[in-house]
Amino acid sequence: MKPISLIQFLIEERRAGHVNAELSLLIEVVARACKRIAVATNKGAIGGVLGEAGTGNIQGEAQKKLDVISNEILLEANAWGGQLAACASEEMEDPQPIPDMYPKGNHLLLFDPLDGSSNIDVNISVGTIFSVLRCPDGVTNPKAEHFLQAGTTQLAAGYVVYGPATVLVLTFGHGTHEFTLDREVGSFILSRRDIRIPEETGEFAINMSNQRHWEAPMQRYIGELLAGKDGPRGRDFNMRWVASMVADVHRIITRGGVFFYPLDAKIKSKGGKLRLMYEANPMAFIIEQAGGAATTGRGRLLELQPTGLHQRVPVFLGSKKEVEVATHYHVEADRAQG
Ligand code: AHG
């Protein structure tokens, strides 16, 4: 079969009425920027891109050089094309306006420029995650409050994983699709259309070192998985944890599985570890469009009304059946407590 490039795919999506010209251009621009990030990531030590940047982000986390480089690549690429009203990045406190000298569009772009950046220096997969919202009508200079839209309103979401291959996964709310970067040609080529995540799985991803800090329902659920064949679930489960959400999610959309970053006593006051607007919402949209489920452990992630641009939330996502069991345990425990 003739390979289908991302550009061809976007033209098809326009013809199908799933995207307009502006959104299609936006995705092309983001994909192009991610190719540049892939090049920088690939150079590793010889590109001088490894190590600390010597700065901190809004979350108070030390930034890696590649965090800063990736953020700049995405901001610069998206400033001038006329497809955006503003950008927001996990790395910056406030939204970035479009400079006055450029035309403005009707979309808001949010991104985590380099997710899993603690893995850069050890040559393990990292990625970029993005989400696209509509700029509210009549708003010409969007502020943080205009980005605070529930995940159900996302027009598009995607991620790029910089792994052995550079892979883009994308949804416009009409299925989840995968594109693999052909480095010689310089194009993303459609490699999987309409990905489906198996409903059942025997593989889970969680940072077990936090076990003693989890809430009781999480202890119960993971305890049952660990008990394997001899426990109430009657089967053995396998565990994986990359510490790059993009890589863990990519495994899940490839062969099934569940991913948890639950609330624990250490992070309770922050609301969770992962960011709703830059990580949880786009991943939840991608996972649901592939037939999986995504919750906060208590309710559907995409229905959560955001209260802050950098808000953190617990995240449960992946194969539907396991997300449902873990969520049910939390809801049941809350009910029992009244
Ligand atoms: P960061 O981008 O700051 O490295 O955070 C990575 C995120 C996510 O990608 C990953 O699943 C999780 O944090 C890992 O957290 P732990 O280090 O606590 O396991």
Primary descriptors:
D-Maltodextrin-Binding Protein, domain 2, 32% helix, single chain, 2 domains, eight-stranded mixed beta sheet, 338 residues, five-stranded mixed beta sheet, Fructose-1,6-Bisphosphatase, Chain A, domain 1, binds 2,5-anhydro-1,6-di-O-phosphono-D-glucitol
Instruction: Note the gap between the termini.
Output: 58 Å
Give the low-confidence spans: none
Major sheet description: 8 strands, mixed
CATH superfamily of the largest domain: Fructose-1,6-Bisphosphatase, subunit A, domain 1
Average pLDDT confidence is 95
The H-and-E topology, N to C, reads as HHEEHEEEEHEEEEEHEHEEHEEEH
Task: Please give the radius of gyration in angstroms.
Answer: 20 Å
Number-wise, the strands total 17
CATH architecture of the largest domain: 2-Layer Sandwich
Q: Count of helices? A: 8
Ligands bound to this protein structure: 2,5-anhydro-1,6-di-O-phosphono-D-glucitol
- The tally of structural domains comes to 2
Assembly type of the chains comes to: single chain
For the record, the CATH class of the largest domain is: Alpha Beta
Strand adjacency order, main sheet: 4-3-5-6-7-8-9-10
As a percent range, the share of helical residues equals: 25-40%
The backbone outline, from C-alpha atoms, is: globular
GO biological process, one term: fructose 1,6-bisphosphate metabolic process
Domain Fructose-1-6-bisphosphatase class I N-terminal: 6-192
Subcellular location: Cytoplasm
Family: Belongs to the FBPase class 1 family.
